[in-house]
Write a structure and sequence with these properties.
Layout (H helix, E strand, L loop, with lengths): L1 H13 L9 E3 L6 H18 L2 E7 L7 H12 L9 E7 L4 E7 L8 H9 L2 H5 L3 H15 L17 H26 L3 H27 L9 H22 L2 H20 L6 H23 L4 H22 L30 E9 L1
Parallel strand pairs: 1-2, 2-3
Antiparallel strand pairs: 3-4, 4-5
């Protein structure tokens, strides 16, 4: 019974470890904001070029606990790197204890054996004795970077290379095209062609239109940063839009359907024409706003009775976009580096949560 009590109380006796949710966690404020940004940028570059996810944890003391045990507990709580790849790295610097530790995930031990890690850490001793913490941390990152192969040389790691904004725009343009074709065909299947196709053919056509384009998109999209399901979601939104337009053309007013279809197409193209971002959901909201504004203007001129209905649609999109923008201010890509807010382009504020990687005790420690 006493043994179980000690096991349950062990975390409390040892003390907690800081939550690692960004590239640099500076508990002691050893780095200035510019230094933190510089270190975070190097960590992001390390992940982009090698696939390895590394975090830096700067603390005062481990409270008497060996830094090896402390670093292992922090790494296991963080779970840096990806599950199955175990390509996480955690650098812990305890300045009051004058101790440093680089914890290495299972997948990195081939490139970073213990003796190599120790040499990297020992080389930072002169900088640490001069309190040049920025230089020492950057030196460790550079030493790690030099020993890891590039992502091109490691096929398993290349999947983490993110998509550029231009690539995202091109994919979104493809989703618009597929959505227009898919929505129109789907509207014809359940409308004009329903009796001609029959039940089984109708079900097969609808299934193909709903499943094949998203499946192809999932296979083609290769990004470690953008959720893949956002792109199929874009296709579904565009297809649903033109499905409604097609049904409106068949059963309601051809003029209204034409105006809505033209507004939808133009709104999407306007939103994406000069959009330099990888935020697919924000693109969808902006496309919806542009579509609403164009539809209101055109229908107000061509069909005034619809004006009141479209105003309600416009308010819906505007409110949804505002809600999304406010909620995303604390989400991935705009986290704060020290509890506050930072810009979406800041590396130091980027979410750095682990992906389920494992650490097996590999690594080395150093004193200065």
């Amino acid at each position: 019974m006493k043994t179980w009590a000690l096991v349950l109380l062990l975390p409390a006796l040892l003390g907690g470890v800081p939550v690692i949710d960004r590239p640099v966690v500076d508990e002691r404020g050893l780095l200035s904001s510019s230094d933190t940004e510089a270190v975070a940028s190097e960590l992001v570059r390390l992940r982009d070029e090698t696939g390895a996810q590394m975090a830096v944890l700067l603390i005062g003391t481990t409270g008497g606990e060996p830094i090896e045990d402390y670093a292992m507990r922090a790494a296991e709580a963080w779970k840096g790197g990806r599950a199955g790849q175990d390509d996480g790295l955690l650098f812990v610097l305890a300045v009051d204890d004058r101790r440093a530790r680089l914890e290495v995930g299972y997948g990195m031990e081939e490139y970073l054996p213990d003796d190599a890690v120790r040499r990297i850490l020992d080389a930072q001793g002169p900088l640490l004795r001069q309190d040049d913490y920025r230089g020492a941390v950057l030196g460790v990152i550079q030493g790690v970077h030099e020993r890891l192969p590039s992502a091109e040389g490691v096929p398993a790691l290349s999947a983490s290379k993110p998509l550029s904004p231009a690539q995202v725009n091109n994919i979104m343009l493809g989703q618009i095209g597929m959505g227009i074709v898919g929505g129109i065909l789907l509207g014809c299947c359940v409308g004009l062609w329903r009796e001609r196709l029959g039940s089984w053919r109708l079900a097969g056509c609808i299934g193909a239109l709903l499943l094949v384009p998203p499946a192809i998109t999932v296979l083609l999209v290769n990004s470690g940063r953008i959720p893949t399901f956002h792109f199929p979601l874009a296709y579904v939104v565009f297809a649903a839009m033109f499905f409604v337009v097609t049904l409106g053309a068949q059963y309601q007013s051809l003029r209204v359907a034409f105006v809505l279809g033209l507004s939808a197409t133009a709104g999407c193209l306007v939103s994406l024409s000069d959009y330099h971002s990888t935020n697919v959901l924000k693109m969808l909201f902006d496309a919806g706003k542009s579509f609403s504004l164009l539809a209101v203007g055109l229908l107000f001129v061509t069909y005034p009775p619809v004006f009141r209905i479209l105003i309600e649609i416009l308010f819906f999109f505007l409110n949804s976009s505002s809600t999304y923008s406010s909620s995303s201010s604390s989400s991935w890509g705009s986290s704060s580096s020290s509890g506050g807010s930072s810009s979406s382009g800041s590396s130091s504020g980027s979410s750095w949560g682990g992906g389920g990687g494992s650490f097996g005790g590999g690594g080395a420690s150093s004193s200065w």
